[in-house]
Design brief:
Elements: H1 10-18, H2 21-24, H3 34-41, E1 45-48, E2 53-55, H4 61-85, H5 89-103, E3 110-112, E4 118-120
Parallel strand pairs: 1-3
Antiparallel strand pairs: 1-2, 3-4
Length: 132
Amino acid sequence: MTNVKMKWPKAIVRAALVMGLSLAVPSFAQGGDDILQSAIANGVIGEKIDGYMGFAQTPPPPVKTAVDALNIRRRAAYTAEAAKRGVTVEEWAVAVGCKTLASRVQDGQFYALTDGKWQKKNGPIALPSTCG
C-alpha cells in the first residue's frame, strides 16, 4: 500500500472516534495469526498510519502472504464502513490507522507515520495533527 496524503478535515477523524471507531476496527486488526504475531514481535512488520500493515524488514514469503491477506481483509472492512459513513476508503483507513497507532501498538513494536520511516515504539507515538 502507498502512503496516503492526509489532506482532509480533522473532523473526519474526530467523527470516527466519536461514532465508535473501536467497534469498526476488525478483530483481525492486530492479526491473531501466529505468523503475524511472531513477525510483529520480531520487528519484521508493523502498523502504518494509512491503516494497513507494512514491512519494516524484508519478510519471508509466509509473512508476506499473511500480511497481504490481512490487508485485503482490512480493505474490505474499510470499504464497507466508509460507505456507511459517507467518507472515502482512504479517509476511513487513516482514521483507523490513527486509532490503531494510538491505542494498539505496544512498546517495542514498529510503526510508520506519513513519512514512511519505520520507528520502534518507546512511549506514546507523536501522531500527526490530522489524527485529531
